[in-house]
Amino acid sequence: MMLASTTGPWTATGMISAIVLASTAGEVLTAAAMKSIGDLDEIRAKSGMAGAIRAVVTCPLFFAGVGFLALAFFSLLFALNHLNLSLVAPASASLTLVTNAIAGKFFLHENVDKRRWTAAVLVCIGMYFLAH
How many CB atoms lie within 10 A of CB 86? Predict the structure, then answer.
């Protein structure tokens, strides 16, 4: 088991960036899929559980999202093999919060309020202190 980082700072940045970008892409695509499908409770009421499942598994955006989430997971495993958990876990989780707020605003046209933007800025400040 590797306890200390044996990679340079740019390699660590690249690994964490891969996790964050793949995770954000997966979550945005999955959210877009679910919005395009509609209310699953209504679909289930009309078509039963099989209809709700069919609505999800026939949506290409859903599988694109799942693919990116799988890529994020394997990127996380790779990073954990080379970097310290105490860096990878908080960095990837926290920075994904920031990128999800940005992606939600610009790609999904969600209303991201001041409180979420403030949280994103504070996360960036915290990541700065973690990295230095």
Answer: 10
Q: How many domains does the chain have?
A: 1
Q: Is residue 22 part of a domain?
A: yes
- Note down the domain range covering 84: 9-131
Q: Looking at residue 4, what DSSP letter applies?
A: S
Tell me the per-residue pLDDT of 67-104, one tens digit each, with 9 for 90 and over.
999 999 999 999 999 999 988 998 898 899 999 999 99
Q: Which sign does the torsion angle of CA 80, 82, 87, 91 carry?
A: negative
pLDDT: is 59 or 6 the higher one?
A: 59
pTM for this structure? 0.84
Helix locations, 38-113, DSSP H: 40-57, 60-82, 85-106
Residue 109 to residues 35, 52, 54, 128, Cα–Cα distance (Å): 12, 25, 26, 28
Residue 122 to residue 120: CA distance in whole angstroms:
5
